[in-house]
Amino acid sequence: MTVSTPEERRAAAMRVSAVSIGANLVLTVFKLAAALLAHSGAMLSDAVHSASDVFSTFIVIIGVNLAAKDADEEHPYGHERFECVAAVLLAVVLALAGVAIGRAALALLFGGAAGVPVPGVLALAAAAVSIAVKEAMYRYTRRTAKAIDSGALLADAWHHRSDALSSIGALIGIAGARLGYTLLEPAASLVICLFILKAAYDIFRDATDKMVDHSCDEATEAALRRCAAAQPGVLGVDVLHTREFGSRIYVDMEIAADGDMPLRETHAIAERVHAAIEQEFPQVKHIMVHVNPAPQDPPSRQAGAPPQSE
User: Fold this and answer.
1) Domain range enclosing 83
2) Cα 240 from Cα 178, distance rounded (Å)
């Protein structure tokens, strides 16, 4: 995983957010025009969904900027968790969008085929363009979110994917309506609703895990142990505790060293472990290394001495 400095992370997130806002504004206007000219209720809903993505991106901008602030007297550990708050808000917005799509689909299904108008071909073209653009935006945003380890930006990526899924439902429905199968759109929209709700749940769970000091995954902890154990003078890793703090990690570690070493030498070993982990794991914001004396082997029995009777 590539994690940049806080300022580089903020700059990357702002760059992606600017592209996202621009693309969503253009798509919203295009879809709205297509909906009105082609008499498509599905495309009108899709236009509203794209407009909501602009709002979600502003939440990302606020969250990332707050998370990038330096520590102060009131927040001595920094502000990284503001990004988690932004991700939670985005998960809620995403869930509401999914519920809205589901409700509209159910209304059309229970209303019967007569309640679904036959749209024009322009709405079909608008849905196809939306799918291509929003899927490209999802991949672009997700790639950057993974590179800078941003939960808020990853949530925004899923907003793009949900919009693409919504447009797929619109495309199926519009094509079906033009072929006489008017209930295809609400049926597809119900399936899409479930995908969106699942994505919202995953984003919400990941953000809340990072807000309640959840430990790192097993692979990361195993890599931390290997890094510490590889340093000269380290005889073992006795204890390792990790906790996620927003996009950063706090590490508490106890290592074993030769108990007969002078204090300065054991301190130097701890410093080497500290420096190695910070270099290999840029996402680690703080690490505390404690040195324990390694347990001594029991003295061996002198050669030739008879065993003592119990």
Assistant:
1) 6-211
2) 62
